[in-house]
Design goal:
The chain is mostly helical. The chain has one domain (5-278): Hypothetical protein af1432 (Orthogonal Bundle). It is 68% helix and 0% strand. The chain has 17 helices and no strands. The protein has helices at 5-11, 19-28, 35-43, 46-56, 70-77, 79-94, 105-125, 131-140, 143-151, 153-166, 170-177, 182-192, 197-204, 213-227, 241-252, 256-270, 273-278. The chain is globular. It binds fe (ii) ion (2 copies). Residues 111, 115, 141-142, 222, 233 line the site of one fe (ii) ion (FE2). One fe (ii) ion is lined by residues 141-142, 182, 206-207.
């Protein structure tokens, strides 16, 4: 199913993702990246600079004397947290204007960030080449939903109300009402945002039966986060998401001992979510 023309026209009027956000993530993965280089990149964007300083000065980090310089913030926070924070702030910053009663943004951001964080931790444990791509894919897997909130809020409300009334998932509700899926809308918008190909594929296939491990790690993280009831994303299915999560975990090699460590690390790191989510 293709997207309605008026949706495509509206997409092209939405804000673009600051290219510095993707650049920071890409450079941070390089073994030759330096604090000076990354700080210079961040400093080139005033909004991101203030986000990073706000995050570094949040009570979560409680750095003695506070931080007024990006390079110092980088030393305390580390490359990985900086990359996560820059992307999260850029993503949420582009969509913070709207809200709908049926689809409140704060729990949606929590859902998105949790999926990104968990997918990245799992990708690292599975020794994927670019675990940051799993973070971006996880963070943005439901991108299509917030795009819909911007371009056709009444349609989004209709989908959520139908899902709630019939106790079905968001994607089933879209299908029953004859709307294109949020996965398709997310991919189209992801192209407009110039997201890397691996990320586009993860967005497109996060509800599909993919054979790519890069896609599956995001699908698994999404199901796991649903099972743990962290945040929400307009989903009202009565099925237990853990059942499918277990099937996918097996497929990608997440055995029980690995899973225990991943889950433990997730809970430790998710504590900083509040600081990141509030800093944008
Ligand atoms: Fe989804
Ligand atoms: Fe989701």
């Amino acid at each position: 199913m293709s997207l309605p023309l008026h949706w495509i026209e509206r997409i092209q009027k939405l804000p673009v993702l600051p290219q510095v956000a993707l650049k920071v993530t890409e450079r941070i993965q390089s073994p030759t990246a330096t604090i000076t280089e990354i700080s210079d990149l961040i400093r080139s964007d005033i909004g991101l600079t203030s986000n990073i300083l706000k995050l570094a000065n949040s009570s979560y980090y409680s750095i003695p004397g506070g931080v007024t310089d990006v390079a110092k913030a980088l030393q305390y926070l580390g490359f990985n947290t900086i990359a996560q924070s820059v992307l999260t702030a850029s993503f949420f910053g582009a969509f913070k204007a709207n809200d709908a009663r049926e689809f409140p943004l704060p729990p949606f951001w929590a859902h998105s960030f949790a999926v990104g964080l968990l997918a990245e931790i799992a990708a690292r444990s599975l020794q994927f080449k670019n675990p940051s791509d799993a973070f971006i894919g996880g963070l943005m897997h439901d991108l299509g939903k917030v795009v819909l909130l911007e371009i056709a809020p009444d349609d989004l409300s209709k989908i959520v109300r139908h899902a709630e009334a019939k106790k079905i998932s968001f994607i089933q509700s879209e299908e029953e009402l004859g709307f294109p899926s949020h996965a398709l809308l997310g991919v189209e918008f992801g192209k407009y945002w110039k997201l890397p190909a691996t990320v586009l594929s993860a967005i497109q296939n996060h509800h599909a039966d993919s054979t790519s491990r890069d896609d599956l790690v995001v699908s698994w993280a999404n199901l796991w986060v649903h099972a743990q009831k962290i945040g929400s994303s307009g989903n009202y299915s009565a099925n237990d998401p853990q059942v499918l999560a277990n099937v996918i975990a097996k497929k990608i090699g997440l055995e029980a001992n690995k899973l225990t460590l991943i889950e433990k690390q997730f809970h430790l790191e998710f504590e900083k979510a509040g600081a990141i989510l509030n800093a944008h």
